[in-house]
Amino acid sequence: MRQFRVYNEISIALTTEILEAKASKKLSWQELADNTGLGLAYVTAALLGQQPLSEKAAKVIGEKLELDAEMVALLQALPSRGNFSNVPRDPTVNSFDEMVKICDSTLKVLAHEHSAAA
């Protein structure tokens, strides 16, 4: 298992491939999370490049999206998270800033998908 995904180009390429496969197969985030043993928000964040997946979860997702072995391995690597330009100096504010930067894309896509289904 790789320890880190430090190059943004790799993460962007992986996320792009995932989003294209998700769209072409017309899968919801919930359908992708099913049978991974992980929560919807966590799996969504992982597929958007913000969290690593377990080997089991990565394989489940890989089968659903028909990802190659290299992509499945990348899903298990700890990514460099968020967009950390202009980091606040105060430790408490920095923690909140980091949380928002890591979770913003996850919350956005889940809100949009949930609103569209309603």
Name the poorly predicted regions: none
CATH architecture name: Orthogonal Bundle
Count, helices: 6
Radius of gyration: 14 Å
Most strands sheet: 2 strands, parallel
Alpha-beta classification: mainly alpha
CA(first)-CA(last) distance: 39 Å
Spatial strand order of the main sheet: 1-2
Explain this structure.
The mean pLDDT is 86. The protein is mainly α. The chain has 6 helices and 2 strands. A two-stranded parallel sheet has the order 1-2. The chain has helices at residues 8-25, 29-33, 40-47, 55-65, 69-75, 91-117; strands spanning 4-5, 78-79. 23% of the residues are buried. It has a single domain (4-117), classed as lambda repressor-like DNA-binding domains (434 Repressor (Amino-terminal Domain)). Helix 3 (40-47) packs across helix 6 and helix 4 crosses helix 5.
Structure, briefly:
Helix content is 64%, strand content 3%. It is built from six helices and two strands.
Primary descriptors:
118 residues; 2 strands; two-stranded parallel sheet; 434 Repressor (Amino-terminal Domain)
Element layout with pairings:
Layout: E1 4-5, H1 8-25, H2 29-33, H3 40-47, H4 55-65, H5 69-75, E2 78-79, H6 91-117
Parallel strand pairs: 1-2
